[in-house]
């Protein structure tokens, strides 16, 4: 989604804000632009369709782009094609105000009509341009920019994170948010605004997370936060506890590969300090629930999107199995609009790596408005979902930059398995099982590493399917959501059509697709349904499908029916997804890389989907 960066201070703003938006490239975008106010107090706008490098190439000589204040934007098109005209910043009629925006102005058509009737001339097809003209309209009336911004935002329906500069106030940025993330970075005699910490972390680790309906007015020496109704806000300064190396690729070709290889560590971080071996159970202090309250839980709703939704499906399987508590899993985009029934003693969990996904946030709010207690399982500290939840669990996976989510899933599943044991041990789960679970979980990071050590072999197998046009992923039980996840990984970065199915469902339809050109990737691990899944494999083989099997180490017989086998270590059933997903992530990565595709920024996708 769109990225926002702003700078005001003593340094030249242009290289700082350009570097800032480069750090946001991972969010996905299709055009970029900057606005600066130069030494002569003139507002200058530069924008370009395409990549930031295209924008940089189009910039005039450095002396024409230098100034101590500027804003920069990467646009992910929603209203209007990704053209230079539609790129941000947008300006008012007299070109004194420049504005960048992340979000969607839902009532832009009505507002635009009214403004056009008052002689405002629009040049783009965007919803954003309406905001610029609306602020310009009130500024003309009030001659007070902050007041104009407040008045304009009162009329707006939808979501926004915005930053504004105005040539009449050549040392001031105004920024505001509702529904889209925005932070203020505090430096020495300089300030930053950004939609994401990674844009500014090389300059400062001291930040303020703006809340909805807050507006910050900032110059190089100080700042003031007010609400949309002009009440002064005292905000808390937070310290970012990670450093720039976590948002750099290091020795890896892509962020996705780096993040896949980080999983021994990230999974360990997800369970560290949360195991209580002496009681054969776990603790999740962030939930803030008493033992009594945890015992009263009768039902769970887990809501999420994309890969996080796959983690939720795995969580359902584990929680129902170990704690015997019914779990409903739903797409956030559906939950928010279907008037869900939330019986007493139901707790709602929302899962989101970014903590900013618009649908998940809306579902959280819907559940809260119905009186439910809502808990977040998020990665990004201070994210909107983390802040709006009644409590929650951070997965501590570290920054995930690759658009294709990898380490977030394994950390989410780890946390869900801890939750299952916590709830289970308060009910009927035996201490023997609790102990086995803890012993097995502790071994998972080393087992993930063993799979990663097989990377070159997996790359070779990827070479055998890289030219396919379709692929089928099959799994059962706790590995069925992993089949869905494997298919999602492949399609989103390699653009090969892929579908995931419960293996036994194949004969009810998808089997019609199988021929000698169809790769079928099957998770067939040694557990209670192993024999059943082998029968499903035979059905594929009989139709000449090309079988790649994810199998348990030591299973030699599976070779007879497979074109290729990728072995993973044995573990208990509930923890299998933490291992079975790894080869599928690597397989998708290598297929996309062998096809020379932009693995970290696949077409049309955004890392954090902050619009509906
Ligand atoms: O940040 P979230 O976990 O809320 O994001 C949810 C999905 O947008 C995300 O998982 C998406 O499906 C990824 N591209 C999957 O790789």
Number of DSSP E strands: 27
Count of discrete structural domains: 3
CATH class descriptor name of the largest domain: Alpha Beta
Bound molecules: 5-amino-5-deoxy-1-O-phosphono-D-mannitol
Shape verdict: globular
Spans where pLDDT lies below 50 across 5 or more residues: none
Bin the strand percentage.
Answer: 15-25%
Question: What Rg, in angstroms, do the CA atoms define?
Answer: 26 Å
| CATH arch. level architecture of the largest domain | 4-Layer Sandwich
Helix content: 25-40%
Structural class: alpha/beta
Read across the widest sheet, the strand sequence of neighbours is 3-2-4-1-10-9-11-15
Gap between N and C termini, in Å?
A: 11 Å
CATH topology of the largest domain: Glutamine Phosphoribosylpyrophosphate, subunit 1, domain 1
Per CATH, the superfamily of the largest domain is: Aminohydrolase, N-terminal nucleophile (Ntn) domain
Largest sheet: number of strands, sense, barrel closure: 8 strands, antiparallel
Q: What is the tally of helical segments?
A: 18
Q: Residue-averaged pLDDT, rounded?
A: 94
């Amino acid at each position: 989604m769109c990225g926002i960066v702003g700078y005001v201070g003593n340094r030249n703003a242009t290289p700082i804000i350009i570097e800032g938006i480069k750090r946001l490239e991972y969010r996905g975008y299709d055009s970029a632009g900057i606005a600066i106010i130069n030494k002569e107090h003139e507002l200058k706008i530069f924008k370009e369709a395409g990549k930031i490098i295209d924008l940089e190439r189009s910039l005039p000589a450095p002396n024409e782009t230098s100034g101590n204040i500027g804003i920069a934007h990467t646009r992910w098109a929603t209203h209007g094609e990704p053209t230079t005209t539609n790129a941000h910043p947008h300006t008012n009629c007299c070109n004194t105000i420049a504005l960048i925006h992340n979000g969607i102005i839902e009532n832009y058509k009505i507002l635009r009509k009214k403004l056009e009737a008052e002689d405002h001339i629009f040049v783009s097809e965007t919803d954003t341009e309406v905001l610029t003209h609306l602020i310009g309209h009130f500024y003309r009336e009030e001659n007070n920019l902050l007041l104009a911004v407040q008045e304009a935002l009162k009329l707006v329906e939808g979501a926004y994170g915005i930053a504004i500069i105005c040539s009449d106030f050549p040392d001031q940025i105004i920024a505001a948010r509702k529904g889209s993330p925005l932070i203020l970075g505090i430096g020495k005699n300089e300030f930053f605004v950004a939609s994401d910490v990674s844009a500014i972390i090389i300059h400062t680790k001291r930040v303020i997370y703006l809340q909805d309906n807050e507006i910050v007015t900032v110059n190089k020496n100080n700042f003031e936060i007010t609400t949309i109704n002009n009440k002064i806000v005292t905000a808390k300064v937070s310290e970012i506890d990670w450093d720039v190396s976590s948002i750099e690729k290091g020795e890896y070709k892509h962020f996705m590969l780096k993040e896949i290889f980080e999983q021994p560590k990230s999974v360990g971080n997800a369970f560290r300090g949360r195991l209580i071996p002496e009681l054969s159970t776990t603790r999740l202090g962030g939930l803030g629930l008493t033992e009594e309250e945890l015992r009263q839980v009768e039902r769970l709703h887990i809501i999420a999107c994309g890969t996080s939704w796959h983690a939720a499906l795995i969580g359902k399987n584990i929680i129902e199995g170990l704690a015997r508590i019914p779990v409903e899993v739903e797409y956030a985009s559906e939950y928010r609009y279907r008037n869900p029934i939330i019986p007493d003693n139901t707790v709602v969990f929302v899962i989101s790596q970014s903590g900013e996904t618009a649908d998940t946030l809306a579902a959280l709010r819907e559940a809260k408005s119905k009186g439910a207690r809502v808990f977040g399982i998020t990665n990004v500290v201070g994210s909107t979902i983390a802040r709006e939840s009644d409590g929650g669990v951070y997965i501590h996976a570290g920054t995930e930059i690759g658009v294709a989510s990898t380490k977030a899933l394994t950390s989410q599943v780890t946390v869900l398995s801890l939750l299952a044991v916590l709830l289970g041990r308060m009910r009927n789960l035996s201490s023997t099982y609790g102990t086995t679970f803890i012993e097995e979980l502790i071994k998972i990071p080393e087992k993930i590493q063993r799979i990663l050590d097989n990377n070159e072999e997996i790359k070779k197998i990827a070479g055998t399917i890289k030219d396919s046009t379709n692929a089928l992923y099959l799994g059962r039980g706790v590995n069925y959501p992993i089949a869905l996840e494997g298919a999602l990984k492949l399609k989103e970065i390699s653009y090969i059509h892929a579908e995931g199915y419960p293996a036994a469902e194949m004969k009810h339809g998808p089997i019609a697709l199988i021929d000698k050109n169809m790769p079928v990737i099957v998770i067939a691990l040694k557990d209670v349904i192993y024999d059943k899944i082998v029968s499903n494999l035979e059905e594929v083989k009989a139709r000449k499908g090309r079988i790649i099997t994810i199998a348990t180490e030591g299973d030699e017989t599976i070779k007879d029916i497979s074109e290729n086998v990728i072995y993973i270590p044995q573990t208990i059933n509930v923890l299998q997804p933490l291992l079975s997903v790894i080869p599928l992530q690597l397989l998708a990565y290598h297929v996309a890389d062998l096809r020379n595709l932009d693995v970290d920024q696949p077409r049309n996708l955004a890392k954090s989907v902050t619009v509906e």
